[in-house]
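pls design
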């Protein structure tokens, strides 16, 4: 199988893309952890600006609201195997974060479906899943419960999470008083300590100081060697090349290139420089 494919909008090319990215039968091959099947996402957007809720409800009651359909994703087919590290790259609005949220099960696609196996830890938004009024310690147990771990299990993990995060002196402080870097440390430390089968990362590694980013990259390398599967959304092509084996280039909601991280990142940078 070739390492690289260029796609166009024709039906034949879409069919070839599906065959290329699909590496096996999800039902029969247990090494396929993520199976994205012809996924599409459509949002309805109002055709005119509405300044307040009163105006919105008046137009709604009178039947004067008009919308247009906006396709964020269109015909996405993709499989990710155990131990693979995949980057989703593209300009703002390309559909990267939307696809990641669909894979995580946070939102449902308007077309197609996604199947996954194994436990999954999503790091999709800074502070997502945290209770801002609760302390760092309370949020460790809260996040653990959300990921399916009992209080007893999280008590065993607590010390290692705190040690990795380097936030020992702030565990009894409400996280609403945390900086963005501190939230990153806590969220990442919880996610990697549970040793998930799949780790989803959306730009979160771009936050925080350089030493912690390096520490995160080293932890990802360690987890990858243990067989953890990664999907990373990042605008940093250096980070993509450093962390990921392969990459998908999304443009206008479609996959236009799939291959090694080096090749796909180079094309993306070239096109950005031509704009």
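designed seq:
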């Amino acid at each position: 199988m070739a390492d690289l494919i260029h796609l166009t909008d024709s039906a034949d090319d879409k069919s070839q893309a599906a065959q290329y990215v699909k590496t096996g039968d999800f039902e029969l091959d247990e090494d396929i952890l993520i199976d994205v099947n012809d996924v599409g996402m459509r949002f309805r957007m109002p055709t005119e600006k509405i300044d307040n809720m009163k105006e919105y409800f008046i137009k709604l009651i009178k039947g004067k609201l008009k919308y247009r359909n906006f396709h964020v994703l269109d015909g996405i087919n993709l499989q990710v195997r155990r131990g693979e590290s995949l980057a989703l790259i593209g300009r703002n609005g390309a559909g990267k974060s939307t696809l990641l949220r669909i894979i995580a099960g946070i939102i449902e696609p308007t077309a197609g479906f996604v199947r996954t196996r194994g436990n999954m830890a999503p790091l999709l938004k800074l502070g997502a899943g945290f209770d801002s009024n609760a302390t760092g310690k309370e949020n460790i147990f809260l996040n653990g419960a959300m990921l399916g771990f009992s209080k007893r299990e999280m008590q065993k993990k607590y010390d290692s999470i705190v040690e990795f995060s380097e936030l020992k002196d702030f565990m009894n402080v409400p996280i609403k008083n945390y900086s963005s870097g501190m939230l990153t440390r806590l969220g990442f430390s919880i996610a990697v300590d549970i040793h998930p089968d799949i780790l989803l990362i959306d730009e979160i590694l771009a936050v925080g100081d350089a030493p912690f980013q390096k520490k995160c990259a080293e932890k990802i390398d360690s987890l990858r060697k243990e067989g953890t599967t990664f999907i990373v959304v990042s605008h940093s092509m250096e980070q993509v090349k450093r962390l990921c084996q392969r990459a998908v280039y999304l443009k206008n909601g479609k996959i236009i290139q799939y291959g090694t991280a080096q090749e796909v990142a180079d094309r993306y940078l070239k096109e950005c420089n031509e704009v």
